[in-house]
Task: structure prediction
Amino acid sequence: MAEEKEEKKVEAYTLSGMIKLKGFVKNGLDTSTIINTIVNFDSEFQEFRQRGFTFPPHLFFYHELSLPETIGVLINEHKFTKGEAVEGLQKLISTFNLQKIMRFDTDELFEKLVKDANQRVMEKYKNPRLKIGENDVTIIGGFLREKIALIHSGDKGFLKTCEEMGLEVIPLPERDFQKEKEIKGWMKKGREG
Result:
């Protein structure tokens, strides 16, 4: 008698070019995560993949507001040329097959929930520096609408607001990013010397 195999079903629905997948883990990357991944993990992003975030079962999402902000920070704070910034962003998008979240008028309802949660966070921790900006409100609102399962961020106010809303968060591993920067600095000095 043949052994029966358990089947896992993945359902895909299409609607106007959009696809919804069941059985996958949706990850939301905020702007700081995108920037840090581009700046620190330039070797085909293997380090990020080694942390277990691969497709499948992970799907990665970013909000459309992150694009200009990412390019601006890469140019102004990390001294990328515009071409390098755009190329790094495009490489990340294609490597992880990042899906763009657009803002819709109906997102105002989600954004109101985010603003209220952020207000509670500032009051709870008695820390006005945990206030998030309008772009962050919009990004988290988009993540809510898309039912993102895991939120990746390095911003404390962003993370605390997501936690307040009951969303799962994964803080950026700051120690790892700092060590990576140091190593790259040493390597760069070694090549110049």
Remarks:
- The chain has a mean pLDDT of 81.
- The beta strands are 12-15, 18-21, 25-29, 58-63, 99-101, 150-153, 168-171.
